## 1
Amino acid sequence: MIKDQIETLRRELEQHNYNYYVLSAPTISDIEFDLKLKELQKLEDENPEFFDPHSPTQRVGSDITGAFKQVSHVYPMLSLGNTYSESEVQDFYDRVRRGLNEDFELVCELKYDGTSISLTYENGVLLRAVTRGDGDKGDDVTNNVKTIRSIPLRLHGNYPPSFEIRGEILMPWSVFDALNREREEQEEPLFANPRNAASGTLKLQNSKMVASRKLDGYFYHLLGDNLPSNTHTGNLDEARSWGFKISDAIKICKSIEDVFQFIHYWDVERKNLPVATDGIVLKVNSLAQQRSLGFTAKSPRWAISYKFQAESALTRLNSVSFQVGRTGAVTPVANLDPVLLSGTTVKRASLHNADIIEGLDLHIGDMVFVEKGGEIIPKITAVDKDARIMIGDKVQFIKKCPECGADLIRFEGEAAHYCPNENACPPQIKGKIEHFVSRKAMNIDGLGSETVNLLYQNDLLHNIADIYELKIPDLIRLERMGTKSAYNIQAGFEKSKEVPFERVVFSLGIRFVGETIAKKLAYAFKTIEALEKATLEELVSVDEIGERIAQSVVLYFKDPINIDTVTRLKSVGLQMSLSEEKLQSHGTALSGLSIVISGTFSRHSRDEYKTLIERNGGKNVGSVSSKTSFILAGENMGPEKLKKAESLGVKLVDENTFLDMIIAVVPSEDEVENS
Ligand code: IVH
């Protein structure tokens, strides 16, 4: 009975996952899905004898760490021969025609630019997921792959008892952009492109973190002894019917003209796809013909790739500067002769890190190729070595901080260099102060970066705690500072003493502790004393706090200078513990949900509802999409929103129902304003 109930729920949730992540056509709202998932989780917890590693509840990942097991591929994972011009494509076509000496079809597909994966299914369940590795053996990343919602854990329809399917794991552009924005805010090194981000994510030792990165998977190659069709496209059609995400951008071509047409169409249209592509793959459709053409040592003779040309420009490298950020991360930047690239003038390009500089074998004065290839920051892809007349100095990554002279360090497993001299390196000191006074932190108006710089140069400000010792005359003495502004700044200091504890934690500028993490820490430890004393184990046991963040927190509170800073901040009266009200009102009822507020309300204001959503772990978003969990709907909701909600099947929740769902301690006015 219970078993049936569990199985029905599992089947239902699998279908909804498929509708949402593969078909992009959900039939229930996220909140309904979540409720069902919670129900299943509860039944499974209560009845552990029915545990199933392929249950939809197993997609959330775990933070258990461990090195990956190496697994041999049953069929080696080969690469494809690359071509870069239409004449090379024509050559491939001619080679195939000569090799087969009979009619044939070519299949054109998009070449997805992610990281390849091989999945093994037995009796309809996902058994193993292995990376390409060296082609013969790769890493077993099954637990990480299980968190990818578009990958079926259990198949439907008429599938063979055992087979492998290969495809590409991708990070959609939207996820990539958001991830990099977040990393930029934390001054963590950015991912150069979605491919690196996807492969980096897949190799994370914490599948919970993988789950949060929202990867996707597209599949393009079925392998096994008993395949359902004797054509490649026939097999892909079957695989689609079992639940795999197979692209629709596939065309069977009977002539080379058809192939060129596909190439021309997608060279433009690919810019509108949600994921990165870098070319076209051409494959002979008939499996018998594939066998007859066979393989070379490295790649099949029956397939080839055509790479799209990234827009690139050639220019001169004049110098390399090294910038030190708030957290001490050192970024190398190439200064270039200005050059026009995809409609904008490029003068600077990121060199990312020491490995990239080394790999390029860069010398000052080199003519370099810059590309934008859909990525945010232009990058140098190659050096035109033939253009070297006189060879300049080799670009070396600096060993000492350009700002304070400290020896740079490099954390294990990280590509970036850091200046460790946190409390005495000028850009780090000034950066920390600017961060401290910024709007999302202590929100002290009037202290812009110029003023901070002047105060620093006048020896009045070395540390965030010094801020509260600044006196009106200190301020007035500064260039361009009026009496009124000085009094306003002073008032800002006073007002900042009301800023809630979670934002004080954020303001400290602990490396890797952004706004959200600061909130989690504040709610988990409740007082600065408890946070100071927290051990690594205690820290990692908090949801979303990984080893790296935990270590950074421990390190911060180990430093006597930081302890002194915190003590001084406490003594001037900053909030160093969670307010009584918040201690009681924090809930998780809405965790993971995206909620849109629309209309007018009678019991609380819109802003109060906004705070309540956040307090209970939810996210308040502006516009309705298929990702919206529900709409908190008041009177006179906008007709556009209503229409959109109806067409997407997003549920409306009225204010009374909403208040029943959460722990509703109404926030004070000040908290509403500050949240
Ligand atoms: S077929 C034996 N199809 O490109 C042929 N590969 O350079 C197996 N890739 O390792 C590959 N999109 O990671 C194939 N539609 C597609 C592809 C594709 C991307 C990647 C894949 C492979 C690499 C080959």
## 2
Amino acid sequence: MGFKVGVCQFKPELMQTEKNLEKMESLLESVSADLIVLPELAASGYLFNSEEEVQIIAEDSYDGPTSILFQKLAKQNNTSYVVGFAEKTGDGIYNSAMLINPDAFIHIYRKTHLFYEEKKWFKAGDTGFKVFKAKNNVKVGLMICFDWIFPESARSLALAGAQIIVHPTNLVLPWCQQAMLIRSLENGVFSATSNRTGTDKAGIKELHFTGMSQIVDTKGQIIHRMNKVEESVFVTEIDPLESEDKNITEFNNLILDRRTEFYRS
Ligand code: ACM
């Protein structure tokens, strides 16, 4: 079964939600795909100075501006989208990602492993690693950025049946893109990592984001990797059913050969 999956890489401007949503809309409005993944905190930027700033950019998952735009695009383009946003809830703000399907159904994942100063602004995610159905019932597992460094994140999603790991990011460390090749290989799943590019400056603080958004196949091979600075959308056709085959040789299976009695938690 052919399934068109894409990643969208661009440079958000810090605290400029409206402008960033306009940019995403113009990058995406004429792109045909079944599923497109966008970066972490795509509409707000990343490097905050205060809790007040995070309060200002936090959004409701149903009637916030990011949700409203992607509900419209999902219906108009018959595409599922995964996009990172600061999720405002009754008990605090989470670093979340939403999967919005063409039928307007919305699923939420809240980042489990917070990175660096995120611990000052966001609550640690409470959703756990769940698999959701995107368009055509393709099973997608959501994780956000720094979740990658804990192999348990991708493993949990694979054990829950994910065919594609969808991975919105704002990467600043140099290791993730290469590590995700192994996450795909060791779990026999596709992965789509969407990173941002550019620099966020907040007072004396500055962070540079590494771009290189990529789509990886179930054997850990790069289907496509963007460069560090481009602002673009890349779409490729995959067969999600390839991820159902966990055999490495006729004697070896990635899931069934595990010796969990010898592993520590
Ligand atoms: C990160 O988790 N945004 C590095």
